Amino acid sequence: MGRANGPTGPDREHSTITGQRGLFGSAYQSRGLGKKGDTMSHTPDDTGAAWGFATRAIHAGQEPDPATGAVAVPIYQTSTFAQEAVGQHKGYEYARSGNPTRTALETCLASLEGGTDGLAFSSGLGAESAVTYLLRGGDHIVAHDDLYGGTSRLFNNLLAGFGVEVTYVDATDAATVAAALRPSTRLVWLETPTNPLIGIVDIAAVSARVHAHASGALVVVDNTFASPYLQRPLEWGADIVLHSATKYLGGHSDVVLGAIVVRDAALAARLRYIQNAAGAVPGPLDCWLVLRGVKTLAVRMRQHEANARAIARYLTGHAQVQRVYYPGLPEHLGHATAARQMSGFGGMISADLDGGRETAYRVLSRTRLFTLAESLGGVESLIEHPASMTHASIAPERRAAIGIGEGLIRLSVGIEDEADLLSDLEQALR
Ligand SMILES: *Cc1c(COP(=O)(O)O)cnc(C)c1O
Fold first, then answer.
1. Is the distance from the beta carbon of residue 125 to the nearest atom of ligand 1 less than 6 Å?
2. Over 70: is that where the pLDDT of 317 sits?
3. Whose CA is nearest to atom 2 of ligand 1?
4. Contact indicator for 223, 243 with CB cutoff of 8 Å
């Protein structure tokens, strides 16, 4: 697989930390980390763009606190900021509009996704809601037909009430997406890899088709399952990257947070306005938890991936397993696309078991290390039954049509010892 560090796509010049105000965001430009003759080998014009991924995860937006020298970004637990005179302040006025801990996280995430601007929200769905405020009644969305359930709920049950229409298409075929575009299409909403069948969408192919169309629609990619370590949609032509940071970015199952990254100044300004006006902002402690999680994203993703590969191999050879869904397997439908647009295949696996729901439930009740729970992306391994848990709200006939069977189980492979995970599955499947 290709390297995961550093921007590799055609848009390397976009991979800079720019345009952020405040204590941390502008520091790379205004002070320069290398200024005081330090011995670190930073490039002179340090925007962080020259650094590899793991370095940016630890340093982008996170230089020592200018006020105290604190190495860890402080949790600025304050709702407001003193002004020296009316309108004269240090870049922060009221904490819904901006908070230094949040700025540090937003700067870091922008850097990791190869964008110019990051925006943090109170949840992944808070971030999604903010994107939908770009729309007005009569506008149209083309969405992949295999989306996170909460996203379709937002579209079908809330957005529809405002006169926004959504067409669901199989976005694994870029021509199908193009055929669904209308003059009123404002957003094309993708998710890859998807959930729970780990489907893969070719971001570059879809983006090229959408951008060639007169509608001027923006391509949104929910990058939650891959994380920027494995996939950076902006480098493949997407306009907006979205995250449930609750999952891999946070990585420890202890915080709910969402994020958006873009690389267009006007779009960033509009979203910044919406973030403040609609108000779904995260608190500073939650920002700090994600910032801490992100520091180890590179090492965590490598281990998630290594464990997942071993488990996918093991399940593929198991007599009780009918089919394994993992993009790292050569027989997976999206394997070639995943191999091209991702630098690894991630930590999510699904598998169809012989014996339907009964077998699935038995396995779920027997695992000891794999905890029975929804969610994903944490250091601990989780297991669940999509048909009765994460995807229960989908009508049974529709579930069957998509391929979410009664014997399907989904694993979020954690970073425990590979041998322990394998023997846990072994005893549960026996
Ligand atoms: C969890 C999830 C969301 C929603 O994020 P929250 O932080 O739970 O609001 C959106 N998209 C995907 C792919 C998810 O897994």
1. yes
2. yes
3. 244
4. yes
